[in-house]
Write a structure and sequence with these properties.
The complex is a heterodimer of chains A (467) and B (402).
Chain A (H helix, E strand, L loop, with lengths): L7 E5 L2 E5 L3 H7 L6 E3 L4 E5 L3 H11 L25 H11 L3 E5 L6 H12 L3 E5 L2 H15 L4 E4 L2 E3 L3 E5 H11 L5 E4 L12 H4 L5 E6 L12 H4 L3 E4 L2 H4 L7 E8 L3 H24 L5 H7 L4 H19 L1 H13 L5 E5 L2 H11 L3 E2 L5 H13 L4 E4 L14 E5 L5 H10 L9 E8 L3 H10 L8 E4 L1
Chain B lengths: L8 E4 L2 E4 L9 H14 L6 H12 L7 H13 L1 E3 L6 H13 L5 E2 L8 E2 H12 L3 H8 L9 E4 L5 H17 L2 E8 L3 H10 L3 E6 L5 E6 L12 H12 L4 E7 L8 E6 L17 H10 L7 E5 L4 E3 L2 E3 L3 E5 L4 E7 L4 H13 L5 E6 L3 H4 L6 E4 L5 H10 L3
Parallel strand pairs in B: 4-5, 16-17, 17-18
Antiparallel strand pairs in B: 1-2, 3-6, 7-9, 7-10, 8-9, 10-11, 12-15, 13-14, 15-16
Classes of the chains: A alpha/beta (467), B alpha+beta (402).
């Protein structure tokens, strides 16, 4: 090994590089397995996230190693305007403060963002806020502007403007962390259940930031990868469940399910497609008894018959999605709630655009720019617009005006999506009861999905009613 | 380049074979590709969505044309197309205007129940009159900031259907490599070019010399040795067009496709028939090298044989491939570097490289105008005027007694 080389700890493309140390010295100072020998550069390498511990061990045990100089900056807030914290918010902040690392679990609508902003205000260090989608990224930008009077940098959505406090998306954070990993002291992972997915972990691993905060309402992942939080962010330091706050900071809510009948033509086509589908699956199961949905999907790329089956399935979904009857029901619900802002969730972009053109209400889709989005949200808040339609863009954490009426006219059946959607309309405001209408096609898969949803925790305290 | 969603590959045992349309098995695609180009050539003014639909319906009756394949072709065709863009947020402004005009009439109903109800068609007529534009044209512009709803402005296209198919094949190989963990290249020739393209793509290397004098390059990225990561797969895909422009190599990549239980191998070599979209780089850096090479000729001179760029010197991630290697029948080897055309930056870099590798036996042939920069520093140097002659180099070998 290269003894003549200067002993130095460096940040290199998302990793730490330690040169001028022999294997014995490494063994003596660091726990086993921390470093790997990189023969390509003749030095030791490990993930940047080990930085704090590594730096500490080196400075305790060795002189003569040039230490890494992070490109951190002190941040001066010119003014801070944050609302007084609620009890559970203070508890969450205190819990995080113990180690300045960890995950805070709080239901949507209980002020997670305020918790993070308060922590950012207290720490006043270079901070990177990572959000799942660009809409949320822009929302963070706005919240930081409003609460901390700071014009944060933006990384993502074609913008590359990095400042001491910057907002970004998981995708961009993952791509750029090799160059930015030594520039932030605090990482805030919003909706952090997105972090453990595949390569996105790099946005935590490739940073030297000692302080880390994860925020989520739904920490559990079906792939079991929520175990990785400890490594990537820290332990779960605070947990508040929906039940703890229902009726407290959340309004009580009611779910009303409205079954929709397909037109005779739609129903006929729907049934026909269904018959062909089950015939296909039946045939396949003659040979492969465990033939299932996933097999079908993977076969569809090579097998024309499987491909056809997939097309049948998609057409069926499209019928559910865009049933004419749904538009009529929407008309009735709009009539019923004239004067009260209404939020509509569609199952697809196409459906959202169709509704938007039919009723001439704004549709909030991913293509909307920052300004347009803001205009729609503000407009719904101040009554300029009577209603808003969105697809999954609003599913998570998007700051929307306190709405008392929401309508779901399509979408997937996943638990998380339903929970997040409920969270949207549950902001506490007066004593009025919030209503979530679920418009589902009768005698279709959609109805089954809706039944499944009702068994979920978030719904257990709701009243169910049918029109 | 295509996106991951366009990728098609057949998994066969330990191997993944990226989709390949060959003259042999896919004869019918040559005509289809011409027709696809025709659809786009005649597609001016049509919406992106319509063009994509046309491509899909063209391929739908073809038994082996998967929808993904059609999507991939759409992407490749779009890559050389220009679509009309929304100007200065005009669509958003239009939408905002319309929504605001309609808001007081909410909800727009189709049948009146009460006196104050607003009928949908009436309100739309009103708004259309207010804007002085037929409703039809308003709806056409309404979502023009969404790619699907943009009309085609111009289409550069590809020279022929065959070229489009060639591009498709390369692109599918690249997609397969998005999931690559690491890549090895064995090469006899164009070593310098291969390493240069790898560096341009941002890859790190391990260089091993094989027994037969050829080289093995293992490519991956900084964090690859910490965990099996596919994060450098895109860099490896980006490296492929450059590699394809080189001669005499074979490549093997280990890929880890998402949701697949194990790793697979992708193989490729210089005879695979894939056509590089980049031109092959010139064989010689300059005329000086080319003329010297032909002056020396294929035969031995006093026992010395001349080979071009056949040795790779490396130290860590620094690499130096001297222009020529002289190999004696008795096994002695001498490296020869020619320094002719220059800029101040080039010269600075070259001097740094030479000092990094000064422990190697390197002869220098330097343009006379650069004499002052080299005289003191390097002992084994000849200065040439415009042309470097074989005889002079032989003489230098004697003089330097190597």
């Amino acid at each position: 090994m290269d003894q003549t080389r200067a002993s130095e700890l460096l940040f290199d493309q998302g990793t730490l590089v330690l040169s001028g140390w022999n294997a014995k010295a490494i063994e003596r100072v660091f726990p086993a397995g921390w470093w790997s020998w990189d023969s390509r550069i003749l030095a030791w390498r490990t993930y940047a996230s080990r930085y704090t511990e590594v730096q500490e061990l080196i400075s305790q045990r060795s002189i003569g190693t040039t230490l890494l100089r992070p490109h951190w900056q002190k941040v001066l807030w010119s003014s801070i305007s944050l609302p007084d914290l609620r009890e559970e918010q203070s508890e969450a902040i205190n819990a995080w403060q113990q180690s300045k690392r960890g995950v805070v679990v709080m239901p949507t609508g209980t002020g997670k963002t305020e918790v993070a902003l308060r922590i950012m205000a207290n720490e006043a260090v270079s901070t990177l806020v990572v959000a799942p989608i660009r809409d949320l990224m822009y929302q963070w930008h706005r919240r930081i502007q409003m609460s901390l009077n700071y014009d944060a940098g933006i990384l993502g959505d074609g913008v590359n403007n990095v400042k001491a406090v910057t907002v970004t998306t998981y995708e961009s954070a993952c791509i750029h962390m090799p160059t930015l990993g030594d520039r932030f002291q605090l990482l805030v992972f919003d909706e952090c259940h997105h972090l453990p997915g595949g390569m996105r972990q790099d946005s935590a691993r490739m940073s030297i930031a000692p302080y880390r905060l994860g925020l989520t309402a739904t920490p559990d992942r079906s792939d079991g990868n929520h175990r990785l939080y400890v490594d990537l962010i820290g332990e779960t330091v605070y947990r508040l469940s929906v039940k703890d706050v229902a009726g407290k900071s959340l309004a009580p809510y009611e779910v009303i399910r409205i079954p929709v009948h397909l037109t005779p033509q739609e129903q006929a086509r729907y049934d026909h497609l269904g018959k062909q589908l089950s015939e296909f699956v039946y045939q396949r199961r003659q040979n492969v008894p465990q033939y299932d949905w996933q097999t079908l999907c993977s076969e569809a790329n090579q097998d024309p018959a499987a491909r056809q089956a997939l097309l049948w399935f998609r057409s069926r979904q499209a019928i559910e999605d865009r049933a004419t009857e749904k538009l009529r029901i929407l008309e009735d619900l709009f009539r019923l709630h004239v004067g009260s802002p209404v939020l509509v969730f569609a199952g697809s972009n196409a459906m959202a655009r169709e509704v938007s053109l039919r009723f001439l209400i704004p549709c909030l889709l991913s293509h909307c720019g920052k300004r347009e989005r803001q205009d729609y949200l503000d407009g719904l808040r101040d009554g300029t617009y009577p209603a808003l339609i969105a697809n999954q863009v609003l599913d998570e954490g998007v700051d929307i005006p306190a709405v008392k009426v929401a309508i779901v006219i399509g979408g997937k059946s996943s638990t998380r999506q339903a929970q997040q959607r409920l969270g949207r309309i549950l902001r506490k405001q007066g004593e009025e009861i919030a209503v979530l209408y679920e418009v589902v096609c009768r005698d279709t898969n959609e109805e089954l999905a809706s039944r499944k949803r009702r068994r979920n925790d978030a719904y257990t305290r709701t009243r169910h009613r049918r029109l | 380049m295509l996106t991951r969603e366009h990728g098609i590959a057949v998994y066969d045992g330990a191997f993944a074979h990226p989709d390949r349309l060959t003259r042999h098995q896919h004869q019918h695609y040559t005509a289809l590709a011409e027709m696809m180009l025709e659809i786009y050539r005649a597609g001016q003014g049509k919406l992106r969505r319509e063009l994509h639909r046309s491509i899909h319906s063209l391929l739908e009756p073809v038994p082996d044309a998967l929808p993904r394949r059609a999507d991939a072709f759409c992407k490749l065709l779009d890559d050389t197309s220009e679509y009309q863009q929304d100007k200065a947020g005009a669509a958003a402004k239009l939408r905002r205007r319309v929504y605001r005009l309609a808001a007081p009439h909410h909800p727009l109903v189709q049948s009146k129940f009460e006196l104050h109800d607003s009928l949908e068609p009436e309100i739309k007529q009103q708004i259309s009159a207010e804007l002085g534009e037929p409703w039809e044209s308003i709806t056409q512009r309404f979502f023009i900031d969404i790619p699907d709803f943009q009309p085609l402005k111009s289409f550069d296209g590809y020279a022929s259907g065959v070229e489009l198919l060639g591009r498709y094949n390369v692109a599918q190989t690249q997609v397969a490599l998005y999931d690559a963990l690491m890549m090895s290249v064995w090469a006899h020739d164009d070593l310098k070019t291969i390493l240069r393209y790898a560096k341009l793509a941002g890859l790190m290397h391990i260089i091993t010399r094989c027994e037969d004098g050829s080289y093995r390059f293992d490519f991956d990225g900084p964090a690859s040795m910490l965990s099996h990561t596919t994060r450098y797969g895109i860099a490896m895909a980006r490296f492929i067009p450059g590699l394809l422009s080189c001669r005499q190599w074979r490549m093997q990549a280990k890929i880890r496709p998402k949701k697949w239980r194990r790793d697979l191998i992708v193989e490729l070599d210089s005879n695979s028939g894939l056509k590089s979209p980049v031109a092959a780089s010139a064989e010689f850096d300059s005329n000086v090298e080319a003329e010297f090479f032909s002056d020396w000729g294929p035969a031995q001179r006093e026992g010395w044989q001349l080979e071009r760029e056949s040795r790779v010197l490396h130290q860590g991630q620094k690499v130096f491939v001297p222009d020529f290697t002289l190999i004696h029948v008795d096994g002695r080897q001498i490296l020869l570097e020619v320094i002719g055309y220059w800029t101040p930056e080039y010269l600075k870099q070259k001097l740094a490289v030479l000092s990094t590798f000064q422990s190697h036996k390197i002869l220098l042939a330097v343009d006379k105008t650069l004499q002052e920069h080299f005289k003191e520093l390097f002992p084994n140097v000849i200065f040439f005027k415009k042309r470097l002659k074989a005889a002079e180099v032989v003489e230098l070998i004697h003089r330097a007694s190597l």
